[in-house]
Design a protein that fits this description.
Blueprint: H1 2-13, H2 15-28, H3 34-49, H4 58-61, H5 64-79, H6 87-95, H7 102-110, H8 115-139, H9 160-181, H10 186-206, H11 210-228, H12 232-250, H13 252-259, H14 261-271, H15 276-293, H16 304-311, H17 329-355, H18 361-376, H19 386-413
Length: 414
Amino acid sequence: MLLDFTLRLRRLTDRWRVAQWATVALALVLCLSTTGVGLAAGVLLAVFAFRGDFQKLRWHWRAPLVLSIAAFLALFPLGVLWSDAPLPDMLDHFEHYLKLLFIPMITLVVARGRWPERVLLAAFASLLVLLSLSLLHFYWPEASFWPDKPMFRGVPFGTYFLMNIGCAVAAHGLLLFAIRRMASCRRLAIGAIVLAALLVSHLLFITPSRTGVLVLLSLVGLLFWQTMGWKGALAGFVAVSLLAGAVYMGVPQIRDRFDVIDTEIQNSLDSGQVTSSGVRYELLRVGLSLISQRPVFGHGTGSLWSRYEAASRDSKISEALITDDPHNQFVAVMIPFGILGLVGLIALWAAPLRIFWGTGFYACMGQAVVLQSVVSSFFNSSIQMFELGWFYVVLTGVLAAAVWRDGRHALKSS
């Protein structure tokens, strides 16, 4: 009895096991608490740093996924050479992207046993809790226990970006699961379809957003390609077109969000009214102007804030443009690093996509995660942002771990 208890205690306190549970905890608070994400990531980093067997993992550090992240992060100390930004701005800029280091960390930690499934279920549970709170806030916004006064009904805290992107990715995974399990487990497949429909309904009717709809449409097209091959690409294009028209005509909230784009931009340009579309338009216009000044190497690390402050003085909404978040990931890397930054950003997506280039369930889910990051990067700084960035990091890491684990098992059995 004592020996059995000792073995169980040793197993629970094993550093690797602590790191695995820290990853589960990270996924569990992913949609709920930025503080919780920071704490769980800190525990994971501390345990991983003191693991002490890095020499055995030399093959892992030479993987394209790790090399692409290292090359991208190397741009930040390199960009210091031609930057005139103050040191705090440089450090803050670098800090936004350090979370990318957790992708190979998570991959290595959970690529064994059933740990990938545990992490994915924890992330899905986190999303469901957030959606439940969103529904509660949508129907009872005047309750006194909400922490802050949110900008939108149905968004109890934080932003709705992660909520909508999470709904789109989860709905894609559930539909993919249903298609592949319909023959073997019909009831489970139907349940997955119903749950996917509820997630899409939440995205469209509770917290509607333009970016969320565009990501959803892109994942629908991807689903057609994944299930029907290249022959299904045309069918996917037709389906996405019909779905886009149906959403626009049948969902007034979405239609209104798209119809006001031109009006909001014009109001910002003419009267200086701060609007969502107007600010994004001006950020993009100023950003493209800054990129054209130094297209190859950019303005250097930490230059976003100072360059936007100087370049937006003639704008009628200049105060809203003083930021280090241009709401476009491509602009966010090309202003400081130019074409070098764009190449590094593309490599960040190409490396995991190389891992996910297959027909397995986890590979297809990985393709969806990469695609949503690319699509949302046109409208948000999806990797630089805390919530969307960690969403991409955790899911990419755990799905890469699942693909690697399944591939290793297939080799052993052959």
